[in-house]
Amino acid sequence: QMHLVESGGGLVQSGGSLRLSCSASGFNLDYYSVGWFRQAPGKEREFVASMRWSNGDTYYTDSVKGRFTISRDSARNPVKNTVYLQMNSLKLEDTAVYYCAAQSLGSTQYNYWGQGTQVTVSS
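The chain above was modelled as a monomer; its predicted structure follows.
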């Protein structure tokens, strides 16, 4: 059974850092991309970053480039592994529920989602 479980959210001051983790099980990640999304109150869910597991290619939305980094566990075990989102120089507007998701290669949408973790940036 496929599971994605996020952790690492919390309250941080503006300019601070957090690292989110997405523990993936039940997937062979060689055949997936893993993405991070976020949804702020009253706003639509938006793409933040993604990584194609097989080759490590990464993608970011413009608003987080240079501040956020998506990475994978160094063990690179495709069937039980963790994807991270290192968030630096956090801004008030980064406050949201952050979700990780998995998209099978060749699919046009993310089909598997975690439950989300809250990130709150205070002034």
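The first strand starts at residue 3 and ends at 7.
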